[in-house]
Design brief:
The protein contains 4 helices and 2 strands. By secondary structure, it is an all-alpha fold. It has one domain: dinb family like domain (Four Helix Bundle (Hemerythrin (Met), subunit A)).
Amino acid sequence: MLPRHCYLISLICCLSANATAQHAGYLDDWLSKWDHAHAYTRAFAEAMPDNLYDFRPTDEEMSFAHQLEHMVRNMTWLANSYFGADPFPVELPREGSNPPRSKEELLALLDQAFAYVRQAVADTPPEAWDEQVDFFAGPMSRRKVSWLLFDHLTHHRGQLVVYLRLNGITPPRYVGW
């Protein structure tokens, strides 16, 4: 018969292995969803003709190009600030201070930003996901910050739907998963 501490060690090992497996499943789902969000967002950027990238519905709103740059700026900031990624390798001017990039440049920038975030999230150790971080909206876990990455993209893609429709362009078909 084994000593009691052996049973306790076995139980701890089983629980730890289960938690690691659960995180791996969650991370796989998250990364799959991120890849779909990338393709879906890129489809919006591709749908708008280059000559309409400076389109803005009103003077107060961002242009189509600025919307995309804003999305890149937010996702790379979150990855750098909350997932420990090295600084994003592309210099992004202060919000709204730059002339819009070309369609080709923005497509490349989107691809780079999505890959950057994907790597940062994939490299985050399982135990760090539930750590509380200081966020401007109050303390929250990195897991919640990861959800914000999707929410922010969804918010701005919704605006891009309107930009496309106002120009007589049918937006890409919805992609959820």
